[in-house]
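Treating backbone geometry as a discrete language has practical consequences that deserve illustration. Part of our work consisted of pairing the sequence of a single chain with a tokenised description of its backbone. We regard such an encoding as a compact summary of how the chain folds. The amino acid sequence and the backbone structure tokens for this protein are reproduced below.
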Amino acid sequence: MFSDRKTSTELGPGTVRRETFAAYVSDEASQRAVQHYIADLSLTNCSVHLGGINAAIARCEREASPQALLVDLTDAEPAATKVTRLAEFCDPDVVVLAIGDRNDVSLFRNLMRAGVRDYLVKPLPRALMQEALNDLLGISAPVERVLTQRLGRVVTVVGTRGGVGATTIATNIAWGLANHKHRRVALLDLDLTSQACGLMLGVSTDNALREALERPQRVDSLFLDRAMVPCDQRLYLLAGKDDPDDPIKLAPEALPHLISLLRKSFHYVVIDAPRTGNALMRQALHLAGDRAIVLDQTMLSIRDMLQLKGLLEEPREGQENFLILNRVGESGKEAITIKALEETVAMKISATVPFDAPNAVSASNAGIPAVSGAGPVGKALKNILEALGGTLLEPPKRWWQRLAP
């Protein structure tokens, strides 16, 4: 659940003022021990706090987590559940050292399964704590251990044709995951002809994505840190621009390499894929865990959906297809019914988004994602977030349940 790779003082891609190390302990003796360790090594960009793992969870819910964490599990019951909750809000590359007052083998095993680097029993022996923190911060030789690194999930959004609203859906998914689900999100605008994602989010972009796709050997964490445009505290955009007079020369390994790097530092990588059946779109669909196909209630959209369907069949393990029917109601009585559409494409509609042109246009012009609103479109988009996040919305309470204390 947590990463097992070594951290460094270099900031990761898209990170803003991220601490190298922070400790959350429950007693003053542990606080002094960690403070002495930091002072002895003259470490910078570090902090020590009272409050234990609950304070660490509260901090990581609000902002990007430090690269390395020490958390105190004293009086945290059940401790393994608390660690699992912390993992939900931590950045994917964080490494964690736990301390506590229980000398319990089963607890130690559960924490190791959760991805914790090590567990120390208080009171903390000075030499043992120094060795553990050196390992945590990569100051000493790494301890050989096999742990599963938590990698971000890739969501690719593609429209069946132009004008169905795929870019709007992709941008709202990315913004919603960052602001409603409190996850770190990288939004990748692969439609190099429009740069529409930046316009919808009210930010300007350069041509960094084109360079990344043509020269993958130059792409590393430092490149991404400089290239990604912050849209808010948890959402970052990477975009570029195609030149009709100088078509992009895509390196075959470029997109897989880029996605691999992004997955190590972001909970979600949302891709707005071009709708043409080129190599970029095919790679984006292949690399995705969730493939969201946006269509509308027209024959043109259904025709293009049938052409696209070949790329969606036989998904590999862990891969999901989502058919999102957008702009529902736009064509009135002339619209093809959902039942007829599903029968024609032989796939079920996963979600619908109603047509609301005036509010959609005003929100787009103002750089305000529709998912931030409380109207029908905002509610529909939030349901899509829940489906992609693997959770279900809490069912609405009946009137008599609202009266209960």
Remarks:
- The mean pLDDT is 83.
